[in-house]
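Our consortium's second objective concerns turning raw sequence data into structural hypotheses that experimental partners can test. To show how far this objective has progressed, the report includes one record in full. It was chosen at random from the queue rather than selected for favorable results. The single chain below, 137 residues long, was entered without modification.
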Amino acid sequence: MATQERPPQWGITNPISMNGPSPKEEALTKSLMEELRRQNTFEDEEKIKNREVVLGRISALVKNFVFTVAKLRGMWDAVARLSSGKIFPFGSYRLGVHGPGDDIDCLLVVPKHVSRDDFFTTFLPMLQETEGVTEVT
């Protein structure tokens, strides 16, 4: 007896339809994309790469921040180096629907020895002193 393989399911409900787009829907999508390009709602490759560079720089800064706080808490260098934080982009950037000039919303997750106060007293000044940072909100 052959078993029928079930297609993967994303989310908690079944899709409304498994059918592909109709010719009319394809034409509407093409028209929408043309209009979005005409209104300059997409970033060029250089700006997309720049966002990736910025996120990499923030990630490195977060690691330095966590190390700095660990040292302030009296941890040995070896232990402090093992401590690390991570950034998680969310919002329009994460969804891939950001436009030119939009910000990048990020959640910062750090070990328990790093407090909220450390964010404002240590990380914020580190961020503000970073070359190329022009606006911190």
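The partners drew two points from this record. The helical segments are 23-38, 45-72, 77-82, 91-95, 116-128. Strands lie at 86-90, 105-109. Both points have been shared with the crystallography group to help prioritize constructs.
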